[in-house]
């Protein structure tokens, strides 16, 4: 019970900080999450709301990484196991979703009623906290932005949510 209350308090504080970051001229640029062991950065202007993982209803004949649909603030949103979509791990069962997992809804301006299942929220990051990394050699998905390194040496991959929302593979949920 105490874990749930602590998690709700963290979510509330993070929601307040996200709203502050959107209205202030500060240099906070990204929402940081962990997904399949990888650190990901979502630009704040394109990230939507954060929700706890609630009831997910399965949708037959869909890709394994498509977990189903969830009711988020009265609207149906498709839920994507983002780590599985990226090929970082096998899809997880709805019953096996960890307590720290969250749903990150894409901004409504993309016209995609979709939420990404991420393993854990890691807070906010600014350009002052990160150094750009040289680009990788080889093919990269169109939605993969720049790579950044923090003061501890951890590499963070920026994800362009607008490009993700238009990506053919992401939109092709039927199996």
From TrEMBL:
Taxonomic superkingdom: Bacteria
Record-linked PROSITE patterns: CHEW
Pfam family membership, one: CheW
InterPro entries: CheW-like_dom_sf, CheW-lke_dom
Residues in CheW-like domain copies: 27-170
Biological process terms in GO annotation: chemotaxis; signal transduction
Protein known as: Chemotaxis protein CheW
């Amino acid at each position: 019970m105490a874990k749930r209350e602590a998690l709700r308090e963290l979510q509330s504080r993070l929601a307040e900080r996200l709203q502050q970051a959107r209205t202030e001229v500060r240099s906070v640029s990204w929402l940081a999450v962990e997904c399949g062991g990888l650190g990901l950065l979502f630009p704040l202007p394109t990230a939507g709301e954060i929700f706890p993982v609630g009831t997910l209803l399965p949708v037959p004949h869909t890709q394994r990484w498509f977990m189903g649909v969830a009711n988020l603030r009265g609207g149906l949103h498709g839920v994507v196991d983002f780590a599985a979509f990226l090929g970082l791990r096998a899809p997880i069962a709805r019953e096996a979703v960890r307590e720290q997992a969250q749903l990150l809804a894409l901004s409504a301006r993309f016209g995609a009623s979709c939420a990404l299942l991420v393993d854990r929220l890691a807070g906010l990051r600014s350009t002052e906290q990160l150094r750009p990394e040289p680009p990788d050699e080889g093919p990269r998905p169109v939605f993969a932005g720049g790579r950044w390194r923090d003061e501890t040496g951890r590499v963070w991959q920026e994800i362009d949510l607008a490009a993700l929302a238009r990506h053919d593979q992401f939109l092709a949920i039927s199996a």
